[in-house]
Amino acid sequence: MKCGTISVDDMSKAKPLELKIPPGNPVIAVTTGDPAGIGPEITAKAVAGGGIYEFCRPLVIGDRKSIEREIVHNELNLTISEAGDSGEGDYRPGRLVLLSPRSLQENDFPIGKVSADCGRAAFEYIRQAVQLALAKRVAAIVTGPINKQSLKESGITLTGHTEILAELTGTRDPLTMFEIYGEMRVFFLSRHVSLRQACDMVKKERVLDYIIRCTEALKQLRLKDDRPFAVAGLNPHCGENGLFGREEIDEIIPAIEEARKAGIKVAGPFGADSVFAMARKGEFSAVLSMYHDQGHIAAKTLNFARTVSVTLGMPILRTSVDHGTAFDIAGKGLADPASLIEAVKLAAVYA
């Protein structure tokens, strides 16, 4: 058994992903994330730049005091306009349309610190956005960074965005896709588990289930992409015929073969040291990585600031920045809104 291969000539013919902003101006809910982190800052900067109004009408869900602080500190030409409960507001450049959940009282949240109050607020922002999306008041949601420790201290047992969204939408095992706009898409067979657990999760049934669901999710995005869906190997050189592990032989290849019998255009397994470079050349519609860091490292090395996380397989569409709360620079005016802008742009494309 050898890893999947592709010729240099084939790679030279590859075309990059081409995505275009569709006509229309959808309302996109943007949560600011943990108010102690950089979420309020990057949100205010993104809206103040005015560029995202070319793609959508951004409905910001967060804390007014935190956003006002960032507007003043960063000397932004921006006025806050209160939104109605259903998301209606005065959407135009120079204005930030804000919806603050009524379940939360105004609070002087700390900056750059773990806080139960901040964890609770971040959760409520997500819940408000999901409610609006389920009610079709917004076309998609974009989430700012949250802090898992703050969530825990607030009494919320769900560990992150994906788990929260699954609970709020009644979804079993949502799909996570990373996209570097116009260059590469990566799915993940497992997410926040130990590496040992991730290896144990590489089973034929799971790999087959993900191939089916990931390719179906791409169709639902109406991409009109007929390139094969690629599957990464788990072991170095896909195990070298069992010398470095048998997961490819016993689990991954049988799943790929069964998917092909079902009519799915899937290729692999390919060694993880080459499959992402091949994807960037345009050979594949997307890549299924076998575990968290395998795909994260590839995407973030390619372009950290422009990597966007997309959650699929739910009744709503969600994109997100792919960085954390950055408590070390919160409130200092140093945060870059580029990832948030890319997340809003991608949400508008897919909405």
TrEMBL record:
One Pfam family named in its UniProt record: PdxA
Top-level taxonomic group: Bacteria
A GO MF term: metal ion binding
Enzyme Commission designation: 1.1.1.262
Keywords: Metal-binding, NAD, Oxidoreductase
Top EC class for this record: oxidoreductase
Record protein name field: 4-hydroxythreonine-4-phosphate dehydrogenase
Organism: Mesotoga infera
